[in-house]
Queue: 3 jobs
Job 1
Amino acid sequence: MTDQPAPASLQVVTSVENVPAQDTDELEAVADPTPVGGVPVQPPRRRRLRRVLRVLGAAVLVLVVYFLGSLWFVHRTGRSDQERPVDAIVVMGAAQYDGRPSPQLAARLDQVVLLWGKGYAPLVVTTGSKRPGDRFTEAQASATYLEARGVPKSAIVQVGGCHVVRLVAARPRPARRTRPAPRAGW
């Protein structure tokens, strides 16, 4: 910078005391809210609003990540195959329509037919009760469906109501069927 004085219209004012009285009104009207350090001062409301928005944004981000993680975990678990020999295959009841299993129950029972056919269990336990006015329980509808697809009646235990654990535990275990030899490769 040069040491030459600035023109009168651009003079730097360091104190209001050095300014003539007629110019002080103009200085107050154009006062800069920026402090000397150059950091702009925001009203407290704006800072509070930004802080609230940041916290809400972080909370939404956490919820989205949690939701997507849960979806991934459910998908991964649903796609896993845990076929292995067991004492019994238990089929939880679902809706039945006058002795005919609902599509959801039929899908469960089709999986049971596959597993039982591979020799993974000597016993199939069908569960489920009925609503007032129904002629069949979910367990009866499931047993009929399984018998029609080749599972012998002697391998099916029907359990109606909520006594599944006690009745299955009290029943003696039949001799385990031999499992077919595993296939080579995948």
Note: Residues 89-170 form a domain with the 60s Ribosomal Protein L30; Chain: A; fold (CATH 3.30.1330.60).
Job 2
Amino acid sequence: MEKRLIIFALISVGILGFASLKWGQDRPLSDEEREALIAGWNEDGQFDDREWSEMAERLPSMYRLFVLGSEISLGRMGYAPGPFDGVLDEATIKAFKAYQKDRGLRQTGGVNDETNRKLQEDALSLNGDLVLLPSLHVFTGFWDSEVLATGTWIIEEREQAHPFQSTRIHCRRDWGVCIDATTIIYPATLMSEDPSLDLDVTTYSVERWDEHEIVTRPDDKACVRYTLRISRQQELVTGLRSTIDRDSEYCKGHEKEDLRLQLADGTEVYMEQWKKYQEKARELILADWGSVDEGAAP
């Protein structure tokens, strides 16, 4: 599985170019060394502590890029890491430890996956970059020919499948298909100043279309299988996501249990997210003032 952080670092050519000029070039790796480095990474999309250390040693300009991003976020939240220079010096280590203590993380004083994830969550809470999501509508008035539905996917008995996504489903009986077009907005995070937009379109073949419901044939993607079901009487759209090839190395990071999805009212999802972000922002402000009062951060 490609790593989210590595993808960002590789596509940020301009930033890495600046880092190379200012901080010096990484020692060139041979093809064998690079393959060995990649092969040693976990397949779960995360770095462990050993991998972070290996990056710091063998790809120092990339590592300093992550330190720089962390310094900016720490400074924004009042932890005073010193100059934003990508150097893990005494002030930056102290700021990391203060932040990690406030968030109940391991106090390593440096970059690691759990700290990166928490910094991204906190940055999002402070930004408040929420978008209005579509209301739930399931149009069944022309059931014998077509059905339209809009809303936001959620996981039953859990939170939404993705907090910033909008879905439109169009089923045509004469075509024998249901088309699911889902737009996902990835908000600005620790490593990306600007939000990004991703569109995923899936065409399902209809297995059954009777007077009560529409059921699609399973659609297989990498490691997962999706099935849609639309109830005419309940005006309800549900989905089933199950993991396939569970024992393969490529798919081992996916959920082991099946997930039941439901198209929900995006307005309600938006309001729930807004409340959470407001509560989180208040917690961050209180935590930061507590750190200053205790002298934890320089």
Note: The beta strands are 137-139, 146-155, 165-172, 177-186, 196-209, 213-216, 219-220, 224-231, 236-243, 259-264.
Job 3
Amino acid sequence: MVRFKKVVIYLVLFSFFISGCGQSYPKEKVAQYVVDLCKKEYGINVIAKVQGKTLGVFYEFKEGLFDETLLPTTQALEKISDAFMVLSRVALSTDADIKFIKLIAIDESKPGLKWSVARYLDDTRKFLASFISKEESDLRTEIDYTFDPELLTREDLRDFSLEDIKLEDFLAKQIAKKIRLGIMQAASSGEFIDVKISEGSFDRGRFAFVIETELKKKILKGKVLDKYLLNLGLTVAGSVLKAYDFRDFNAVTVVDRRNSKMVAAKRDALLGLTDKNIKK
């Protein structure tokens, strides 16, 4: 996945400046522009659509998307990067109200398997303006690999399913990913702790995160470690939500399944960098 991120980021950066800011793609045909440019510039056949504030591309490989480990091949990633570059370029230069871009790739020879990548368009703008680093930009890119049974029965792929991505759901996934990374880094890259689960969701104004860890070596006393992991989850959540200036929530909870303990913080306490209203 690292290669994909590097290719996409620098191609988007390059294409943004050589194409100039004057090029604009009217909202009435924004999806068709993506299809036409992919075909004209790279000989790639894709399907594109707009769902709400999400511009998406569906890219079907006859074969060769996945290797023997069911990860995208280098050749496939290069084609995906080309398509994602076009998607990014059009989204950045349209009068349509686009907030997210998403590319979905499938392999006809492996029915049901789906690989996707999604980005918040403001994150791309911030990277282009050097407001965030390449490493942070990578962390803000959502890459997913799933089995979709709907693909087994859908006959007309032109009517592919594209979800209108909501910022709160996007942030829940990003926070969960960063919580996992934070635990692994704090535990010497997994030498002491294995993170089995790190999941996030948003419902009725509350962000909820669930972690499950397995201790490989005893590095801290039980209560100290329990408190550290839970508070790390809150710290990561607060950092991400403040970075996006996202305030449309009431509280954040973090649950550790290993010991069934939970910590919670109300919005003002979390964003205010205080431990007031934090319940253990």
Note: Residues 154 and 188 are 45 Å apart (CA to CA).
